[in-house]
Amino acid sequence: MVEALYLAAVTMLFVPWVYGLYALARDGRNRFLPLARQFLRGRRAKKEQAEAEREREEQERQLY
Predict the structure, then answer these.
(1) Which whole-number Å values give the CA distances from 24 to 1, 14, 29, in the listed order?
(2) Distance of alpha carbon 39 from alpha carbon 23, whole angstroms
(3) CA-closest candidate to residue 26, choices 18, 37, 38
(4) Reduced to 3 states, what is the DSSP secondary structure of residue 4?
(5) Helix boundaries (H) for the chain
(6) Which sequence ranges are marked TM in the entry (predicted)?
(7) How many Cα neighbours within 13 Å face the side chain of 29?
(8) In this predicted model, what pLDDT tens digit does every residue of 6-52 receive, in sequence order?
(9) Cβ contacts of 42 within 8 Å, gap of 6 or more
(10) What is the DSSP letter of 46?
(11) Distance between CA atoms of 29 and 6, rounded to whole angstroms?
């Protein structure tokens, strides 16, 4: 009887903990991963834009 009660109590404590880990992973995938991708895309775009501007200025200097 005591073993069954202990097993039920451990199960009742373990299930919400596992669901919390699942919810954290789901939130990370659905919320934080797209934000990180957007941030990296923005950094790459700024870097490419700066490189294009630098090349354009260098070409202008060479023309004059």
Answers:
(1) 35, 15, 9
(2) 23
(3) 18
(4) helix
(5) 2-27, 33-63
(6) 6-25
(7) 6
(8) 999 999 999 999 999 999 999 999 999 999 999 999 999 999 999 99
(9) none
(10) H
(11) 35
Q: Which two tokens stand for residue 59?
A: 């070409």
Q: Which two tokens stand for residue 5?
A: 């009660």
Q: Which residue has the tokens 């957007």?
A: 38
- What size, in residues, is the chain? 64
Tokens 């200097």 locate to 61
Which residue is listed with tokens 């596992």? Answer: 18
Supply 27's token pair: 């939130």
Task: Give me 29's structure tokens.
Answer: 């995938």
**Residue type (1 letter), 33:** L
Extract the tokens encoding 58: 């260098």
